[in-house]
């Protein structure tokens, strides 16, 4: 008889799993030995699989290369003589046989060194070259062959050449939106580096802020202010960090405001009685323009009618940082009309009223580094100078209706010059396209004599390649943002237009065009704000506010509130109202002369006039004392004769 095991089963069944226990635990295989995993073996298997795949890939590519070579050789053999073709075939056969032997040897050697190397064995050509350890660490398929890369590069070059041939295709002018700034000229435009906010300034002294992400289809500014009171805005520019805005107006003091319009600093005004402008702390005359330093945070530059260009720091508004004094060739003062920094910030360029363009090193204020004395006609205001993005070319927009291009490396003559570009504003500017292939500027027109245009010139040939009719007014400002790829234009009739392309442009105007215009809420039409107290006592509860329309209807039914005011009386008068005799001073005096308001009578007699009536019909005092009032007795008054008779004798004797 067999001995039962500990689990209550016989010895013959003790080695197998218990079916009842498996059902109770909820899974089969209970009681079996757990499977063990050998990680080293798994890694080795994975390595061998990767090596095998890489080897197959290499063999397939070698076969493709051989086939391509054979095709090329066949093409060459058709052109050559039969003798040469035979020698080539023999040479190819010898090469293929040697390649087969070398490949067999490499396979034999690789089988012996599989444990040491990771990856496929090197082919014959690669074995002769120095081994690249970076390629040994890479597992997986190899990069595509060189032929495919060459073809892709050729396709890219073809596309680039097509784009270079047609730079006009990159102009984003398929769509536009119009922002209504005011009724006067938009003389300043500024866009922050990210392209989220636009700021406009004009001859109406207003500065308006536009947020593309917050605007809807109504295109309304979210803030308007007058930072310089009654001075025209001439220049607005965001700093390179986008947190401050430089405001240059017709005053002698530039201002810096933050993104929300609050003042950060104001430059100090200089002493106008000092002869040497380098010894005063600030500008003493009207400003023209200003510019931020492209690299250094908090540094900016301004130019003024006091014949100086000054650099400032936001942290030190009480004194300028440095002073540049433009001079003629004879050493006389000359007024700069515009100024700008180079792209790297090392150079400062200024155009002057005598037609010259002068460029200084930022750290050397004494003598200009470049000086061209007749860049534009003398006596005209050069309205803009700007550097290209590569920093080698300078464009100048002159008051002599020209646009010129200069190479600062050979600053002895202009590269190109274009005429027939009328301008009537001292701030008409020009700018480069983001790819540096086009130059843009605007034209001015008389009122009712055509439309202002935005003109595009190719930088390489300086040909007039494209034009855009903006509006029936002058084009004053233009700005081509490199990130948004959108063009902002300020016009002479108070409009700011934004041109964009849905496919080529990014964000900006595309954000606000898709938003529908919001409707005005009913709560905005209430007469005044009130406090809602639903649980207050009736005596403290405020009456429910009604809209203005219902209140007006209720007032119309009220006879007192809806009573028409009576007009002034004309003529002699009626209804108890005295008529007027004219509104002049003489008529007033004549009217009041006839009214005798003086009383020359004796006041005692005026009172005694009513004594008899008061005695006959007492009403106030006499009835109260009628029973207790003593009888009035008056003393007898003697005449002068009786007094003389009654005098004593001693008085008569004395007399």
Automatic annotation (TrEMBL):
<feature type="region of interest" description="Disordered">
    <location>
        <begin position="632"/>
        <end position="655"/>
    </location>
</feature>
<feature type="repeat" description="WD">
    <location>
        <begin position="280"/>
        <end position="322"/>
    </location>
</feature>
<feature type="repeat" description="WD">
    <location>
        <begin position="385"/>
        <end position="409"/>
    </location>
</feature>
<dbReference type="InterPro" id="IPR036322">
    <property type="entry name" value="WD40_repeat_dom_sf"/>
</dbReference>
<feature type="region of interest" description="Disordered">
    <location>
        <begin position="1"/>
        <end position="24"/>
    </location>
</feature>
<protein>
    <recommendedName>
        <fullName>WD repeat-containing protein 70</fullName>
    </recommendedName>
</protein>
<feature type="compositionally biased region" description="Basic and acidic residues">
    <location>
        <begin position="645"/>
        <end position="655"/>
    </location>
</feature>
<keyword id="KW-0007">Acetylation</keyword>
<feature type="compositionally biased region" description="Acidic residues">
    <location>
        <begin position="148"/>
        <end position="166"/>
    </location>
</feature>
<feature type="compositionally biased region" description="Basic and acidic residues">
    <location>
        <begin position="45"/>
        <end position="78"/>
    </location>
</feature>
<feature type="compositionally biased region" description="Basic and acidic residues">
    <location>
        <begin position="541"/>
        <end position="566"/>
    </location>
</feature>
<feature type="repeat" description="WD">
    <location>
        <begin position="179"/>
        <end position="211"/>
    </location>
</feature>
<feature type="region of interest" description="Disordered">
    <location>
        <begin position="541"/>
        <end position="581"/>
    </location>
</feature>
<dbReference type="GO" id="GO:0005634">
    <property type="term" value="C:nucleus"/>
</dbReference>
<dbReference type="Pfam" id="PF00400">
    <property type="entry name" value="WD40"/>
</dbReference>
<dbReference type="GO" id="GO:0019899">
    <property type="term" value="F:enzyme binding"/>
</dbReference>
<keyword id="KW-0597">Phosphoprotein</keyword>
<keyword id="KW-1017">Isopeptide bond</keyword>
<dbReference type="InterPro" id="IPR051858">
    <property type="entry name" value="WD_repeat_GAD-1"/>
</dbReference>
<keyword id="KW-0677">Repeat</keyword>
<feature type="compositionally biased region" description="Gly residues">
    <location>
        <begin position="572"/>
        <end position="581"/>
    </location>
</feature>
<feature type="region of interest" description="Disordered">
    <location>
        <begin position="136"/>
        <end position="174"/>
    </location>
</feature>
<dbReference type="GO" id="GO:0035861">
    <property type="term" value="C:site of double-strand break"/>
</dbReference>
<dbReference type="InterPro" id="IPR015943">
    <property type="entry name" value="WD40/YVTN_repeat-like_dom_sf"/>
</dbReference>
<feature type="region of interest" description="Disordered">
    <location>
        <begin position="43"/>
        <end position="124"/>
    </location>
</feature>
<dbReference type="InterPro" id="IPR001680">
    <property type="entry name" value="WD40_rpt"/>
</dbReference>
<keyword id="KW-0832">Ubl conjugation</keyword>
<comment type="similarity">
    <text>Belongs to the WD repeat GAD-1 family.</text>
</comment>
<keyword id="KW-0853">WD repeat</keyword>
<feature type="compositionally biased region" description="Low complexity">
    <location>
        <begin position="99"/>
        <end position="111"/>
    </location>
</feature>
């Amino acid at each position: 008889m067999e001995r039962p095991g500990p689990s209550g089963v016989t010895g013959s069944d003790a080695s197998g799993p218990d079916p009842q226990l498996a059902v109770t635990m909820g899974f089969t295989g209970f009681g079996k030995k757990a499977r063990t995993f050998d990680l080293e073996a798994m890694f080795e298997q994975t390595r061998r699989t990767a090596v095998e795949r890489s080897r197959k890939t290499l063999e397939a590519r070698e076969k493709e290369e051989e086939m391509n070579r054979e095709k090329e050789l066949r093409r060459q053999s058709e052109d050559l003589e039969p003798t040469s073709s035979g020698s080539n075939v023999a040479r190819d056969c010898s090469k293929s046989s040697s390649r087969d032997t070398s490949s067999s040897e490499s396979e034999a050697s690789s089988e012996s060194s599989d444990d040491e190397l990771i990856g496929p064995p090197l082919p014959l050509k690669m074995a002769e070259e120095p081994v690249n350890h970076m390629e040994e660490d890479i597992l997986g398929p190899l990069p595509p062959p060189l032929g495919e890369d060459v073809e892709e590069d050729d396709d890219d070059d073809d596309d680039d050449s097509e784009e270079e041939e047609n730079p006009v295709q990159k102009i984003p002018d398929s769509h536009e939106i119009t922002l209504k700034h005011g009724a006067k000229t938009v003389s300043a435009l500024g866009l922050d580096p990210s392209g989220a906010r636009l700021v406009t300034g004009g001859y109406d002294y207003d500065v308006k802020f536009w947020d593309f992400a917050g605007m809807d289809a109504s295109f309304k500014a979210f803030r308007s202010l007058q930072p310089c009171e009654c001075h025209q805005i001439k220049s607005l520019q965001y700093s390179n960090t986008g947190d401050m805005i430089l405001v240059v107006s017709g005053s002698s003091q530039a201002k810096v405001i933050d993104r929300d319009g609050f003042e950060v600093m104001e430059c100090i005004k200089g002493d106008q009685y000092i002869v040497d402008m380098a010894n005063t702390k600030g500008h003493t005359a009207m400003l023209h323009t200003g510019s931020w330093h492209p690299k250094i945070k908090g540094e900016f530059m301004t130019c003024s009618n006091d014949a100086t260009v000054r650099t400032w720091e936001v942290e030190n508004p009480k004194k300028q940082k440095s002073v540049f004094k433009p001079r003629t060739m004879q050493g006389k003062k000359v007024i700069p009309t515009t100024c700008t920094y180079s792209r790297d910030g090392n150079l400062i360029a200024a155009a002057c009223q005598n037609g010259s363009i002068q460029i200084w090193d930022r750290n050397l204020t004494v003598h200009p580094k470049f000086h061209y004395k007749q860049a534009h006609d003398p006596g005209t205001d050069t309205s803009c100078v700007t550097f290209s993005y590569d920093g080698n070319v300078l464009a100048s927009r002159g008051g002599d209706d020209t646009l010129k291009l200069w190479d600062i490396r050979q600053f002895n003559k202009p590269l190109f010059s274009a005429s027939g570009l009328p301008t009537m504003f001292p701030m008409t500017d020009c700018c480069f396209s983001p790819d540096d292939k086009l130059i843009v500027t605007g034209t001015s027109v008389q009122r009712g004599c055509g439309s202002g245009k935005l003109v595009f010139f190719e930088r390489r040939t300086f040909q007039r390649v494209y034009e855009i009719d903006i509006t029936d007014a002058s084009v004053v400002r233009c700005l081509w943002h490199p990130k948004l790829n959108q063009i902002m234009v300020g016009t002479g009739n108070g409009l700011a237009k934004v041109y964009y392309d849905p496919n080529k442009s990014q964000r900006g105007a595309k954000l606000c065009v898709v938003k529908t215009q919001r409707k005005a809420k009913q709560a905005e039409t209430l007469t005044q704000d009130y406090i809602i107290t639903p649980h207050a006592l009736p005596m403290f509860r405020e009456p429910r506010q009604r809209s203005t329309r219902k209140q007006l209807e209720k007032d119309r039914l009220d006879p007192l509130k809806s009573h028409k005011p009576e007009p002034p009386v004309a003529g002699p008068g009626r209804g108890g109202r005295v008529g007027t005799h004219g509104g002049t001073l003489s008529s007033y005096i004549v009217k009041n002369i006839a009214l005798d308001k003086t009383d020359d009578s004796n006041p005692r007699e005026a009172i005694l006039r009513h004594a008899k009536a008061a005695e006959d019909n007492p009403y106030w005092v006499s009835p109260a004392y009628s029973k207790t009032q003593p009888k009035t007795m008056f003393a007898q008054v003697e005449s002068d004769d009786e007094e003389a008779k009654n005098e004593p004798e001693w008085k008569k004797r004395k007399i």
